[in-house]
Each structure stands twice: as structure tokens, then as C-alpha cells.
Design goal:
heterodimer; A: seven-stranded mixed beta sheet; four-stranded antiparallel beta sheet; 54% strand; B: 116 residues; globular
Chain lengths: 112, 116
């Protein structure tokens, strides 16, 4: 069974640009969550989607948004990038009714 | 508010030593889940264990064991006879509420280095 797939693996952007990251969950998993990992703040929850609906949201500005498609694939978007957005963005999926996240390898975003 | 504290930032051991990683959590909920994840240099978080708040039984899986104590709000992780491949950052995490809450609060992590 394929794991959680995130693309691209690495991304370099400049301040002010926007970026879209993609996540394909494990087959059968309908919940997709996103986390930001930085050396200073550690792992922080961004949001969680289930059946195309956002169920939970972390404390991030509105520049961070996401969506989920009918096939459970998810994208997150960051607009007007800032230097502080440089981070590893991790996507996780969970099977129905079971809390136990399975993570992808992440997208390393560098903002210059 | 929920909080997870991993007081040990870095631990260095020699192969075959036993090592315990500490995790202390704070929550007002009576129903919650606790997790441990391993993050090797490749970056992917690897799920190790999930424990719910009603199950205080300790668990052993091969060289890994977990000690859950509600009285001290701790969920410690022990690696017996450590190996170089155990070198990674280990995270403890907490999810409040029932099984429908998929938001995890992570500790800052403990970098474990196992030297040959």
C-alpha cells in the first residue's frame, strides 16, 4: 500500500510569491492534516480536512489556506510568502475513526 | 490548553545502552490520545505508538517500551539495547477529545544520537 505522497519535495520561492503544495493520502484515508515544522516553533498544526470540509484549523494567518478534493487529495496554498514561511510542510492522513496519523516526507519550502 | 513537554533536547548514548525519552503532557480533557513519532534525517515522521487515556497498561514492542502514568501525566519511551539506526528525533504528541480530533500538539522533540 502506497504511503502519503507529497509533491514537490523541495521548493524555492521569493517573498511575495504564492505557492501550492500537494498531498495524496493513503488509499482509503479520508482525513488529511497539514503541519508546519520549523527549528524555532517545532511542529505546528495548520488544518485538517475530511470529506472536502475543513474540520479544524490552527493559529495561522489567512495567507495559509487549503482544500480537499473528492478523491481525498489535498492542497495547501500560501499567498504573499514571507521569509518566516520557510519550513518543512508535512501532510498526514488518517483512516476513518482512528486517530493515528501517517505522515508523508514533506515539502521543504525555502523563501528567499 | 494542551501542552507537551520533552525536557531532553539532545541525548547521546553508546550502542547497546538503554535510553529513556521523557514526555510530560498537560490537558484538561479526560479523553485524549498520546503518541510517539520518530523522525529520521529523511524527514518523514514515523508513527510508533498510540495510547488512549483509559489504557494505562505499559506496552512493549521489541526493543521499544512505553510507560504511561496518568498520575504524573507522563508517557515515557525506552529503547533497550540501542542501535545506531535508532538515531533520530523523537516526538511525543497529544490529541485531545475523542477519536474524531485529528489535531496533534507536539513536543519540541528529543534528538537521540547512538554512537557505535
Amino acid at each position: 500500500k502506497a504511503g502519503v505522497t507529497q509533491t514537490p519535495r523541495y521548493l524555492i520561492k521569493t517573498r511575495g510569491q504564492q505557492v501550492t503544495l500537494s498531498c495524496s493520502p493513503i488509499s482509503g484515508h479520508r482525513s488529511v492534516s497539514w503541519y508546519q515544522q520549523t527549528p524555532g516553533q517545532g511542529l505546528q498544526f495548520l488544518f485538517e480536512y475530511f470529506s472536502e470540509t475543513q474540520r479544524n484549523k490552527g493559529n495561522f494567518p489567512g495567507r495559509f489556506s487549503g482544500r480537499q478534493f473528492s478523491n481525498s487529495r489535498s492542497e495547501m496554498n500560501v499567498s504573499t510568502l514571507e521569509l518566516g514561511d520557510s519550513a518543512l510542510y508535512l501532510c498526514a492522513s488518517s483512516p476513518p475513526g482512528r486517530v493515528g496519523l501517517f505522515f508523508g516526507s514533506g515539502t521543504q519550502l525555502s523563501v528567499l | 490548553a494542551q501542552k507537551v513537554t520533552q525536557a531532553q533536547t539532545e541525548i547521546s548514548v553508546v550502542e547497546k545502552e538503554d535510553v529513556t525519552l521523557d514526555c510530560v503532557y498537560e490537558t484538561r480533557d479526560t479523553t485524549y490520545y498520546l503518541f510517539w513519532y520518530k523522525q529520521p534525517p529523511s524527514g518523514e515522521l514515523v508513527f510508533l505508538i498510540r495510547r488512549n487515556s483509559f489504557d494505562e497498561q505499559n506496552e512493549i514492542s521489541g526493543r521499544y517500551s512505553w510507560n504511561f502514568q496518568k498520575s504524573t501525566s507522563s508517557f515515557n519511551f525506552t529503547i533497550t539495547a540501542s542501535q545506531v539506526v535508532d538515531s533520530a528525533v523523537y516526538f511525543c504528541a497529544l490529541s485531545e477529545g475523542g477519536g474524531s480530533n485529528y489535531k496533534l500538539t507536539f513536543g519540541k522533540g528529543t534528538l537521540l544520537t547512538v554512537n557505535p
